Amino acid sequence: MLKAREFDVKDVVTEPNPGSNPSDDNMIEVLEDHGDDPVEMELASAIWALNEDEQIDLVALAWLGRGDGGIDEWDDLRAQAADAHNNRTAAYLLGLPLLPDYLEDALDQFGETSTDYEASRQ
User: Fold this and answer.
1) For residue 62, is it within any domain?
2) Is residue 29 part of a domain?
3) Which structural domain range is residue 74 located in?
4) Which helix (H) or strand (E) holds 73?
5) Is residue 52 within 8 Å of 85, Cβ to Cβ?
6) pTM exceeds cut of 0.90
7) In a domain, 106, yes or no
8) Helices 74-84 and 52-66: crossing angle, nearest 10°?
9) Which of 40, 48, 92, 104 is most exposed, with the fewest beta carbons within 10 Å of its own?
10) At a CB cut-off of 8 Å and minimum separation 6, what does 99 contact?
11) Distance CA 60, CA 121 (A)
12) What parts of the chain have a pLDDT lower than 70?
């Protein structure tokens, strides 16, 4: 969740030719959405490392948090996510501008927090 938030704050590239020393441009490229962004690569790798059921759950959680259904419709949301599943899950999820907020809201509906969830994954 923290990496998703880190990725979500990225902005458009304003300094296409940064100085040779990061301090020359006030480290602004850290906040810009470059094609070779290590945060994006790390998130995509983490999503690809999930098994199919976990990827489906993650998409369904994003949809739940986005308001596409309520907690009482979880089984339907998950079934829809399973039907839509393909090999572009990482690209799809990283394309959702408010992904960390959606996931946080969904976990909240289950009575969990992102801290609880991340602790259970370790």
Assistant:
1) yes
2) no
3) 37-121
4) none
5) yes
6) no
7) yes
8) 120
9) 48
10) 4, 7, 8, 62, 93
11) 18
12) 1-39, 114-122
